[in-house]
Amino acid sequence: MALWGGRFQGGSSAMFRQVNDSLPFDNVLAVQDLQGSIAWSRAIARAGVISAAEQSQLEQTLNELIALANEGKLDFAASTEEDIHSFVEAALIERLGDLGRKLHTGRSRNDQVATDLRLWVREHCEHLNQDLTRVIASLVSSAETNQQVIMPGYTHLQRAQPVRYAHWALAYVEMLKRDLGRLSDLTKRMNQCPLGCGALAGTTYDIDRQEIATELGFDSPCLNSLDAVSDRDYVLELLFCASTSMMHLSRMAEDLIFFNSGEAGFIRLGDQVTSGSSLMPQKKNPDALELLRGKCGRVFGHLQALLVTMKGLPLAYNKDMQEDKEGVFDAVNQWHCCLLISVEVIDSIKLDAERCARAAREGYANATELADYLVGKGTPFRSAHDIAGQVVLTALDQGKAIEQLPLETLKGYSELIEEDVYPVLQLEYLVDKRHILGGTGAKPVNKALDAAKSWLSQH
Ligand code: ARG
């Protein structure tokens, strides 16, 4: 039976039920709804609405329901209740009769659902925090195992300057650490409790809102009842965190798809994260990586969808807001799975150090070095850039690397070039010369690796 039947003479249409009912998806809030209900039962007992004995009976039954929910034994599919809140109330009434009918005193589903969803978001932020840390750990361990590998670094997908593979991996560590930071900012900001705000205006019962907030692990109560029941910023922020982090995973996936291509051949991926072709027996496709890239679409979509839903909603609660849930549930689930599959992919990577180094040597990635060498001999950088460019053109013509050109050819472009140019053009030398903070030289990369490891030991 509906929670609000008294004022109605006719029943709801089947199509209305289909559009209106949220139990098929908001049942994932069962435990949060039950926890919120325990806190509420204590609050109304303290306010003298129910006796201590009644409260303890309610709490016991609510705890039994939590146990059933955790065991997956609440049969939502068989229920005709409208949403998780009606479901819980019906379950209480079934077990406790009139006492079950007392719990909703002074409460509305509006402050109730706002509390449930905050509890759910807060809990999932913690899980996602752990997932992100696991990806960081995999990247750090892959960087450490392959500390010596040098590969081409790219701009415009053109070989630009050589970098260490570890430097590449640690770039993603930086991104994921920012994702973690965003999650923790959001958790701090959202940790206020709406319960006690009623439908929109607050409640007349003598409820200690600070006490409910503390019991449910919130820092404080929400300060304005109109805002409390209709604020979904924290859902939007979580969707933004998910979107930004998925964007990072997708960029990483794109890099790895390229590194894994037949053309680059820098890495090989494990069988456990790839699949074959039904037609072409030789194929081993990077499906996990393509899906990391592909799943961004729906996650970004959920962020956009909720922004549009919230835009222009008048204060306070409107049923439109029920549309906040499916998107965030899906986004969090996708993000979680993508983080975990990233761990599997990264752990499975085998580098071909030889191919990486060869590719880094080819493609004139040391042309900047030649220009810098000339700068060291007193040539202004702009002229040095021009000379190095001409040398590249000649080398290209002859199908050679810069360092394969004889000294007399190089001297044809600048008399300042001497025998000492050759060591400067060597791969390791030019990589390790970038020992500036944040650079790809062995020293800063080792330092960054140490920093990442000590960060991990504290998380
Ligand atoms: N299922 C609703 C939601 O998710 C619960 C709140 C309903 N409140 C109301 N006044 N109809 O938003």
From TrEMBL:
The keyword Cytoplasm applies. It is an enzyme of class 4 (lyase). Keywords: Amino-acid biosynthesis, Arginine biosynthesis, Cytoplasm, Lyase. InterPro entries: Arg_succ_lyase_C, Argininosuccinate_lyase, Fumarase/histidase_N, Fumarate_lyase_CS, Fumarate_lyase_fam, Fumarate_lyase_N, L-Aspartase-like. It catalyses: 2-(N(omega)-L-arginino)succinate = fumarate + L-arginine. Its main location: cytoplasm. Residues 364-431 form the Argininosuccinate lyase C-terminal domain. The keyword Lyase applies. It is found in: Cytoplasm. GO terms for molecular function: lyase activity. Pathway: Amino-acid biosynthesis; L-arginine biosynthesis; L-arginine from L-ornithine and carbamoyl phosphate: step 3/3. Its EC number is 4.3.2.1. Residues 6-301 form the Fumarate lyase N-terminal domain. Pfam families: ASL_C2, Lyase_1. PANTHER family: ARGININOSUCCINATE LYASE. In the N-terminal section; belongs to the lyase 1 family. Argininosuccinate lyase subfamily. Belongs to the lyase 1 family. Argininosuccinate lyase subfamily. This is Argininosuccinate lyase. It comes from Lacimicrobium alkaliphilum.
